[in-house]
Amino acid sequence: MSDSDRNINPSLRSRKRIHPSSTSTETYVEQILAGNRTFLSRAITLIESQQPRHQEQAQAILAACLPHSGKGIRIGITGSPGVGKSTFIEALGQMLLQEGKQVGVLAIDPSSPMSKGSILGDKTRMAKLSREEKAFIRPSPAGTSLGGVAQKTRETIILCEAAGFDHILLETVGVGQSEVAVHAMTDLFLLLLLPGAGDELQGIKRGIVEMADLLVINKAEAEREQLARDTQRAYRNALHLYPPKDSGWTPQVAAGSALNNTGMDKIRSLIHQYFEHLQKKDLLIRKRREQALFWFEETIDQQLKLFFQRDQAVQEAMTKIRQQVAKETLTPFQGAQKLLDIFLQKNT
Amino acid sequence: MSDSDRNINPSLRSRKRIHPSSTSTETYVEQILAGNRTFLSRAITLIESQQPRHQEQAQAILAACLPHSGKGIRIGITGSPGVGKSTFIEALGQMLLQEGKQVGVLAIDPSSPMSKGSILGDKTRMAKLSREEKAFIRPSPAGTSLGGVAQKTRETIILCEAAGFDHILLETVGVGQSEVAVHAMTDLFLLLLLPGAGDELQGIKRGIVEMADLLVINKAEAEREQLARDTQRAYRNALHLYPPKDSGWTPQVAAGSALNNTGMDKIRSLIHQYFEHLQKKDLLIRKRREQALFWFEETIDQQLKLFFQRDQAVQEAMTKIRQQVAKETLTPFQGAQKLLDIFLQKNT
Q1: With B117 labelled, which of A235, B86, B219, B326 sits at a CA distance of 20 to 30 A?
Q2: Where would I find the H helices in chain B?
């Protein structure tokens, strides 16, 4: 691997027209395990490709990398637009780099196709971090279905970890369900909040606060410091109303300014405490196992549905039966049963 | 049909060992359409039966009754234990009976098998209503899966409407997801609340308040009247924070005491206003259509999953593959793919 390979920002390279599958799977695996980010980036492109040939190779690469993954610390970061997610990720990322860590930054955004240029792909957004050699920034994979995007992102995490990245920061860019997906593929779920407003006014969906392991009131700059402290106290009180987490961890609320780099040490130390808590009780292994099984079942459901929807005979009968159900000349159950009979007759 | 048939409380009768399928489908349909509640009750027992022969007849009866259903007004009623749901249903039910309506009272409780005696089956719980000839009270169908219980309840609504019941009061007895199911099969979703405490302290799950079309602060008796008024105002203010409903209806907050029968006229009139609003804009038809399609898709998903889980080859391979996924020697996607290959190989 040449030095120039190492230095080219992979998020730029991935935009070029490349032919990833002209390289052998063995080479990919070898280079990824050696930490070559150009090959890592190309392998992620294979994961994201719709071509069966690419998908096949991607799965082979993943199978070989899987035993070398799992050692990273996976942090999900969410919050409303305007809360300062990218500034926070820059600050936290640089902090980790200074500790000698290798940081991968990924995103989930089912709404914006990559071709349009995900915000994360914008170099100006994380200008400092994107210049760092030990950081790897990858925009959200394209896709309209959250399930598809989530799968690609989980597979990207595996490759990043196999390539030696020991801290994965996973940002939610989309709204709504993407937080749930990120929560289900990370070890720590961090929610960024603004000083002052309650979570409903901030556009935080109900249920998100309960999922958080660490809440950070960001933008606690001079004139908002008192407000941030009040907000911090309000959330601390509110968290008492929620049932305790299975892990036994009490969600913590910190305040700071990623922009001015204040309060970041405390946040770093809380992240550390959280992982110590998980590791002490073997909870990390259990959490990862539960997550793997969750996605296993999700994938089966999705794929079964897809297989059903793509069935020729089902497609031909669907429109009429749907209409009958909508007009209530068939009960939903009877309509479903008719379609399933058509499907099963052909498939059994 | 004899008079004695009409007068026997069907919720008692349904507990007896009966052999419903010795009666022809034609007789069932004829008697149900004539408003014979003994046959209605027996047909519901067929719906609830696990025997294929019974299920088949139940579906035939449903198909014949379906064109005669849909004219009822379906009201879902929810609230925490202790809020006074049964007293409220008694008061509202008797009010409707006095107007000359025919009232069916059903419940959804996936957690308590009917054999144990659902609370609703307890005559003392709705003593007045259960003595009324024009009221029909049926306990929640048995079942551990909410999907199954929900299907049976939706089918019971069809039969009740075909039998001439023009008001269906559907109570949630279980917690959690059953509110979502009841919301998806009723026209109006009514949430009962206690004076004083906020919804989180009352054990109301997040998301339930947003689903409500009508909130009733119950138990607003003398000493709690002021508190009830404060709570009413607090909820009115809180509701402004939620996005407007697709129907254009602004959720209303009323207060009253079902026990003392105060405030019930106002509540009755709000229910009336709500349905006028829906009917004026043809929203009821649209709502029902959306609900039918929702359950249609839900049923397909459930049945597909069931078919997959019951597959012999899938069952044989499942344990090992699940373990590999849990141990992360296979990615969730690879594990799912392996199982699906086994399933599809056999079924295509």
Answers
A1: B219
A2: 3-7, 10-13, 25-33, 37-48, 52-65, 85-98, 127-131, 146-162, 177-183, 208-211, 225-239, 264-280, 283-310, 312-326, 332-347
